[in-house]
Design a protein that fits this description.
CATH architecture: Alpha-Beta Complex
Structural class: alpha/beta
CATH superfamily: 2-enoyl-CoA Hydratase, Chain A, domain 1
Number of helices: 12
Distance between the termini: 22 Å
Number of strands: 10
Strand content: 15-25%
Radius of gyration: 17 Å
Largest sheet: 6 strands, mixed
Shape: globular
CATH topology: 2-enoyl-CoA Hydratase, Chain A, domain 1
Helix content: 40-55%
């Protein structure tokens, strides 16, 4: 079953779609494999930028699928489950051209981590987003917390992660996490909402992305992301997290 798709549009950009609508595009092991493969395909194409979005109109990504990232994992196995997504986020962060997260719906937990790994975030109006991991007894586990500190003011990143809050799009636009909010009709009119990016050539975009990486990405960032994964793994088998996962699965 194809849960993540990639295509190159005739306008010269690539698009990866998380396509597991019935599970709110939550990430499982198969999706991790396919997402890695799609990023490799995109890297081989000549494109001016890469979109990452979700299928459906309700959710971009609800984070990790708790049937896959379940609560009964010891530290070692939790790390083994979490680390591949850290590598994917790192690949997105270092991708050769700009990456644009088109947030077609709400995002929570790991969904916000994926979005934060992208260079630009554009949301459809009426959406909500939350780094909710602390409410589950853990911390961000794919390196997205470390990335958040690079993308918004450190004090706000700390507040958001610590409180596990969910905010609306307008609030996060004012905080700088979102770069734009579009109405439903405008959001799906790619030639309009992406006009500023479509006018640039792949060669221009590679130069601009390289300059951005040189100016903003600390050499220690990958190591900090690794450390974050280990912190999350160390909390995975905690009573609070086990209870939160069990409670969610019972409701489901």
């Amino acid at each position: 079953m194809t849960l993540v798709t990639y295509k190159r549009h005739t306008e010269g950009y690539g698009e990866i779609v998380l396509n597991r609508v019935n599970k709110h595009n939550a990430i499982n092991g198969k999706m991790i494999e396919q997402l890695k493969s799609c990023l490799e395909q995109a890297d081989q194409d000549t494109i001016s930028f890469l979109i990452i979005t979700g299928a459906g109109e309700q959710t971009f990504c609800a984070g990790g699928d708790l049937h896959y990232f379940h609560g009964q994992l010891d530290n070692e196995h939790a790390f083994a489950h979490l680390y591949p997504m850290k590598e994917i986020l790192h690949t997105i962060m270092l991708f050769k051209v700009p990456t644009i997260c088109m947030l077609n719906g709400n995002a929570f937990g790991g969904g916000c981590e994926i979005a934060t790994a992208c260079d630009i975030r554009i949301a459809v109006e009426g959406t909500r987003f939350g780094f909710i991991q602390s409410t589950l007894g853990i911390v961000p586990g794919w390196g997205g917390g470390s990335l958040l500190y690079e993308k918004v003011h450190a004090s706000f990143a700390f507040q958001w992660i610590t409180e596990g809050a969910t905010y609306n799009a307008e609030y996060l636009y004012n905080k700088g996490w979102l770069h734009a909010i579009a109405s439903g009709e405008d959001f799906y009119n790619r030639s309009s909402v992406l006009a500023a990016y479509l006018k640039n050539t792949p060669e221009q975009m590679e130069v601009l992305k390289n300059q951005y990486k040189q100016q903003t990405l600390a050499l220690s960032l990958s190591a900090r992301m690794n450390e974050e994964v280990r912190y999350c793994a160390s909390l995975w088998n905690s009573p609070k997290h086990q209870h939160a996962v069990e409670e969610f699965l019972e409701k489901e």
